[in-house]
Amino acid sequence: MTIAINALKTEKGPLYRQIADALAEQINAGLLLPGSKLPTHRRLADQLHVTVGTITRAYGEVERRGLVEARVGAGTYVRDHRKANWVFSNDLDNSQCELGFNIPPSFDRSQMMQQAMSALTEDPRQINHLLLYHSAAGIAEHRETMVGWLSTLGLKLSSDRLLFTSGAQNATQLVLSAFSRAGDNLLVENLTYPGLISLARQQQLTLKPVAMDDQGLLPEALDNACRQYQPRFLYSMPTLQNPTTAVMGLQRRQEILDVCRQHNVYLIEDDVNGLLPEHRPEAMVNLDQEHVIYVGALSKFLAPGLRVGYVHAPEALYKQLMSTIQNQCWMVSPLLTGLACQLIEQGSADQTLHYIRQDIRQRRQLVCSLLADTGIQTAEDCFHAWLPVPEAWSLSDFLAALKTEGIAVKSAELFVPPGYAIPPAVRLSFSAPDNLDTLTSGLKTIKSLLATQPVAEFSL
Fold it and tell me: What's the mean pLDDT when you consider all of the chain?
């Protein structure tokens, strides 16, 4: 490919930025099409009579702008924004088996919500107080209630370091916006949460994947990544990792924290699934509160629509994080945090968590029995499973076959940081179907497809 770049060296500004601007103009004008491969660094350097280093910086700048992606061992490609994206929709066809999203099992929450809202509005002074402006730190009594309840689930947090957020996604966004800058490297597991990938793109951060095994992050790989990329943050899901379901053992957690301390790296512990298991290892934040930024929410075990999350920050980061909340939204709604605390105090949070665990165990038993011998990965009390696609199928053909059968899953493509190899696998969120009959039907269809060769319409 020959790229027409004119007037080089005659304009003001560094050469690499002039080249980056010219590439951006051609991409935005449609002259460089999505998916097309850019020339090698050497080839474009020779064409433009500049150094290879100048082209490397130019390509890096265009990648930072989200216009191209560098694929390891394959080159640099114009990013295709039409590719699968992480967008939630509850507008589903009733004939579909929805296995795409990690949502709690469906049940009637109306009675517990009526009870909680009635309790909040009984005292006019209380409800009027919740409707006023408050500090970005949140109401002290609400923080104490939340921390007290979380302590019954094994978390050792301090109410004076807890901040409420609008869900776990917002908590992570606050951390990244407060402490990172465009172009920074952020370490992640080599398969990670798509919402984090979207946030990194928005913040113009470069994701650097770290190798995993069946327990999650490998300490040696993390150490090498820290030496190579000198990051400030590592984002990890040590309990019920999304999408692999890996649960990091206690010794591994201590080894990962040792590496973080050695390289002065903060660990963002995404524990949004972490309270689901009845039996789980010690949370990372319990092991080191000064190097762990703990992120959680009530979405998975109470109500996603409540949008109450929390972040527990090291002392050195707390004030800046609180200022970021104030700058972005002034405060998280005290009415919602008050409602969440009322649900906790009246016992609804514990009852709902118990119900969800019981329901998920039934669903997981179905998954394990119907998809035995497929290499599927699951974990106790987890909402999802990680399913490898047999060699007979390409990933795209398998996804197409599932779609034809009315089954929605999530492709491995969504969980891979930009530019890295995509494994042939899918995530099955077996918490999502409305009932066990729908789940059973969907799993049987998947089992049948896995046992067959691709038909002509799905094969290359």
Answer: 90
Residues in the chain, how many?
460
Residue range 49-64: average pLDDT? 86
pTM exceeding the 0.70 threshold for the entire prediction: yes
Interacting residues of 455 by C-beta distance below 8 A, sequence separation 6+: 401
The string of pLDDT tens digits covering residues 229-261 is 999 999 999 999 999 999 999 999 999 999 999
